[in-house]
C-alpha cells in the first residue's frame, strides 16, 4: 500500500505576478530611462551655446524668428530637465510621456523638412543648419527618433524601475 500522499502541484510563480516579465520589466525600464536620459542630456549639452540651437530651429523654416529664438533657447533646458527627471526616476511615467511627445515633434519636424525639400542637418545634437544636398540624413534621423520614441513608450507604459524616487512616494512599486 502507498502511504505517500500526493502533494498538490504549485506554480513556480504566484498567480498574477507576471512570471519572468515581472522580474525583467523593471530592469528594462531602468535601461530605457537611463538610455533616453543620456540621449536627452547629450542633446541638450551639444546645443550650447544656445545660438547653435536657435540656428537649428530657424533652419526648419517653421516659426517666426522670435518663436524660433524662444524654442532655441528653451529646448536645451527642457531636454536637460527631462533627462534629470528620468535619471532620478521622479514622475517617471510623465517624463516618459513628455519625452515621447518631444520625439514625435522632432519626427514631424524632420519629415516636414524632408517633404519641403530643405537641405538641413536636423540639429538634434548641436550641428543644425543648412548642409549640402547630399549631406542630409532624414531617413536615419527619423529611424533614430523612432527608436527613442520606443524607449519613451516603454517608460510610459511600464514606469516601475529600480533606483527611482517614485518609489519613495509610493508610486510604481
Automatic annotation (TrEMBL):
Species whose genome carries this gene: Nocardiopsis sediminis
Subcellular location, principal: membrane
InterPro entries: Methylamine_util_MauE
Record-annotated Methylamine utilisation protein MauE domain positions: 26-155
Subcellular compartments: Membrane
Alphabetized UniProt keyword annotations: Membrane, Transmembrane, Transmembrane helix
The keyword Transmembrane appears for this protein: yes
Membrane topology: Multi-pass membrane protein
Transmembrane segments: 27-46, 66-87, 94-115
Region ranges (Disordered): 1-20
Protein name: MauE/DoxX family redox-associated membrane protein
Position of the signal peptide: none
Pfam families listed in its UniProt record: MauE (PF07291)
The keyword Cell wall biogenesis/degradation is assigned to this record: no
Amino acid at each position: 500500500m502507498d502511504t505517500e500522499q500526493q502533494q498538490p502541484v504549485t506554480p513556480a510563480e504566484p498567480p498574477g505576478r507576471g512570471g519572468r516579465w515581472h522580474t525583467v520589466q523593471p530592469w528594462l525600464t531602468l535601461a530605457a530611462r537611463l538610455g533616453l536620459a543620456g540621449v536627452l542630456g547629450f542633446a541638450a549639452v551639444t546645443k550650447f551655446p544656445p545660438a547653435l540651437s536657435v540656428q537649428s530651429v530657424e533652419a526648419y523654416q517653421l516659426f517666426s524668428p522670435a518663436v524660433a529664438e524662444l524654442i532655441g533657447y528653451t529646448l536645451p533646458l527642457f531636454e536637460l530637465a527631462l533627462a534629470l527627471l528620468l535619471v532620478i526616476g521622479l514622475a517617471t511615467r510623465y517624463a516618459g510621456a513628455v519625452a515621447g511627445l518631444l520625439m514625435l515633434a522632432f519626427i514631424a519636424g524632420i519629415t516636414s523638412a524632408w517633404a519641403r525639400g530643405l537641405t538641413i542637418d536636423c540639429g538634434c545634437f548641436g550641428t543644425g543648419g543648412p548642409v549640402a544636398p547630399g549631406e542630409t540624413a532624414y531617413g536615419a534621423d527619423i529611424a533614430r527618433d523612432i527608436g527613442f520614441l520606443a524607449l519613451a513608450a516603454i517608460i510610459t507604459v511600464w514606469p516601475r524601475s529600480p533606483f527611482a524616487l517614485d518609489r519613495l512616494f509610493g508610486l510604481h512599486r
